[in-house]
Amino acid sequence: MTDNTHISASSTPKIIELDTADAIITTPMPLPEFADFDLPKPLLTALDKLGFSNPTLVQEKTLESALKGNDLMVSAQTGSGKTVAFLLPCLSHVLNTLPPAHSRHKKARPQVLVVCPTRELVQQVTQDTINLVKDCKGIRVASIMGGMSYPKQIAGLKGAQIVIATPGRLLDLESRNNIQLNDVSHMVLDEADRMLDLGFSEDLDKIAKLCEKREQTLLFSATFAKNIVGLAENLMFEPERIELANTQDKHSDISQSLYWTDDEVHKQALLMHWLEHEPIDQVVIFTPTQVETERLALALRKAGHNAIDLHGGMRQFMRMKQIKKLREGKAKILVATDVAARGLDVPSISHVINYGIPMKNEDYVHRIGRTGRAGRQGHAITVSTHADRRKVFALQHFLKQDIEVCEVEGIEPKPYQPRRDKKKNSRRRGKPRPYQFERGGQGDGKKPYNGKKGGGQSKSSDKPFKGKRYDKRDDDGRNGGDTKKPYRKCKDGKGSNKKHGNKSYDNGGNTKKPYKARKPKNK
Questions:
Q1: Is the CB of residue 470 less than 8 Å from the CB of residue 485?
Q2: Cis ω for the linkage preceding 415 (within 30 of 0)
């Protein structure tokens, strides 16, 4: 490249002339702020108190379109701030249309309805909503979910403008006329893909019909699969799609690693090493079943660790109690099933350990999304045996990326030896056994079976079976006779064990003696 720099020696100071092709001056774009959007002052005050000054990418894109009243389909990574993204435009509408005097004792006629798939997600969205409306007078928030008492939820619904609910309990209360959805202007479907997986498709259609007067619908999903697009076509009007990320995108704030293990003892040794030697603030250990969740949590408590368990078999107040312990820092280790894979937002969770491969690959994405939240660095560790190699490869194919394989010095796994193909078993279904013997009363039961249909012929030979056949029917057609003597056909065509006899034999006694009719006993 030619040097286009010219230095003038006669003048002071020196002037350096640069070619524009060599010198490209870039000015950094200023980061957007929440104050740049048309939000009510109470919301801006609440955001400032929570420490939110600059919106995330999903919040920026969502606010630009949602504040205009457009229907939106949004797909973004977990932990990217989706909850605040759909709450701010809804709360802005409520504050702008709030009547001067609001009575708490009116019937439940909410303006904003947020539908979530799980109870834990309902609790998380409710808590985030309460944090945003602390400085807003006259706004009430209510939550509806299964596992809670009806009278308490019905009392909390009175006068609530914002309702966060699961589909089943919402329709149950609506059928009892405890809540009316005619005044809903904004409807939000959070984790729509999960609700379809749980079989809530018909319930969502019913809820949409009950909220037919709504002005805006916001749909948030991990992916834009065919079933999600079909749901949007039924519920939304010309929705705008905002796809910032999908499940295959790599999390920049989460480091992922894979550890191979030999057996359950090896798994436990690795787990104890991490809990005792790794700098862990709080950790969530995901297990496949409820039984294993309770067993592992009990083993950790016996080992002196502060561990609690959480699964779908618990009663609702116990699940809320366990989550509260984790948020308050009273518990360091949470052993849970996939019920905690969505809706658990605790920024202090630094590690996630998959104590087994999840049943669905999508659940892996939501599991590791419990860490690395709010811009913090997180670590996702997956433990698997060689028996689950196919599941691991299927997971990597779904993620479209390889998970780094790591080892702990001194606790390395044994070298993997692929299983050899076993010899083909000649006794598989559909193949004849090497030796089969005559059955069904024909043949002596000791000679090899050579034919079909009671001593007929085999596939390899057309010759009839030469073994002796024995009598099993008497003159009267009864299943009697001496089966130890050869079968001979009589002149009358009936079988008998004598040359020309016409005697029948007793089927219930000694088959070698002639049959005698018994007199009925006197009652």
A1: yes
A2: no
Q: Where in the chain is the domain with CATH 3.40.50.300?
A: 34-243, 254-405
Edge-to-edge strands of the sheet including 141-144? 141-144, 162-165, 112-115, 186-189, 216-220, 72-75, 240-243
CA distances from residue 273 to 27, 81, 226, 279, 282 in whole angstroms, order as listed: 49, 33, 44, 11, 15
CATH homologous superfamily, domain 34-243: P-loop containing nucleotide triphosphate hydrolases (3.40.50.300)
| Cβ neighbours for 108, distance < 8 A, ≥ 6 positions apart | 142, 154, 157, 158, 159, 160, 163, 178, 179, 180
Q: In the block, which residue shows the tokens 């408590």?
A: 301
Q: How confident is the model at residue 519 (pLDDT cuts 50, 70, 90)?
A: low
Alpha carbons 272 and 274: distance in angstroms, whole number: 5
Residue 92: closest CA among 32, 159, 47, 33: 47
Q: What is the pLDDT of residue 199?
A: 82
* Domain topology for 254-405: Rossmann fold (3.40.50)
| Alpha-carbon distances of 478 from 471, 490, 501, 504, rounded to whole Å | 11, 16, 15, 8
Q: Tokens 């002796």 sit at which residue?
A: 468
DSSP state of 289: S
Mean pLDDT of the region 245-263: 81
Closest CA to 227 of 267, 266, 194: 194
Please state, in angstroms and rounded to a whole number, the distance separating the CA atoms of residues 416 and 19: 60
Angle between helices 57-66 and 82-96 in degrees, nearest 10: 30
| CA dist., res. 212 & res. 180, Å (int) | 12
Sign of CA dihedral 223, 224, 229, 235: positive
How much is the pLDDT for 512? 59
Average pLDDT for 406-412: 91
Length of the chain in residues, anyone? 523
Amino acid at 120: E
* Selection from 209, 205, 229 nearest residue 219 by Cα: 229
